[in-house]
Amino acid sequence: MGFTRFDSPIGTIEIRCTSDGISQVTLGAPGNISPASTPSSPMLVDAARQMKEYLNHKRTTFDLPLDWSTIRGFQREVLQMACKIPFGQVFTYRRMAEMMGKPTASRAVGGALGRNPMPILIPCHRIVGADGSLTGYSAANGIITKAWLLTLEDHTVVGKKLV
After folding, report:
1. Which residues does the chain have with pLDDT short of 50?
2. Distance from the Cα of residue 5 to its chain's centroid
3. N or C: which end of the chain has fewer CB within 10 A?
4. Does residue 103 lie in a domain region?
């Protein structure tokens, strides 16, 4: 249906949608902000507004329809569980796996989160290693962006670890 692109403290963000909802968020999106980046639907206008509010510490939850049509199986299960983690809280990969009844699936949980098509809206940045380490983050600038998002949510990050 369309896309919008805007500058943010963590780089350019691009949000795409279908008629069913937001379908993709790209952090560190390539390209210039141009008139073509102007939101083409009310859903995108609302998504950009909510994302900017979150990034400016004025919003803790999102009220947007998400298009889950391309996310299936285990990945969908993992991402839907990640959506339930409240602002300011963190879970470990192991805890996620255990909550899903798959206690040995920590790595699979990490893999599913690494393919999250809608970072921030699906808050995969709230999942950390068992020792608090900020293991992988596939969105722009990786761990640096994950640390920035966790700091935004009032966590203390030193190096690559929550303290």
Report:
1. none
2. 16
3. C
4. yes
Judge whether 87 and 142 are in contact, CB under 8 Å.
no
Task: State the residue range of the domain holding 12.
Answer: 2-55
Encode pLDDT of 49-61 as tens digits: 999 999 999 999 9
* 16 shares its domain with 94: no
Residue type, 140: A
Please report which residue ranges of 35-99 form alpha helices under DSSP H: 42-55, 73-82, 93-99
Q: What is the pLDDT, as a whole number, of residue 68?
A: 98
> Would residue 65 count as lying in a domain?
no
- CA–CA distance, 136 with 114 (Å, rounded to integer): 8
Q: Is residue 155 part of a domain?
A: yes
Q: Looking at the structure, do residues 89 and 158 belong to the same domain, yes or no?
A: yes
CATH number for 93: 1.10.10.10
Q: Are 141 and 10 in contact (CB under 8 A)?
A: yes
Strands (E), 76-140: 91-92, 127-128
Q: Quick one: what percent of the chain has pLDDT higher than 70?
A: 94
Q: What is the pLDDT of residue 144?
A: 92
Residues marked active site are found at 124
The pLDDT of residue 32: 61
Query: Does some domain include residue 78?
Result: yes
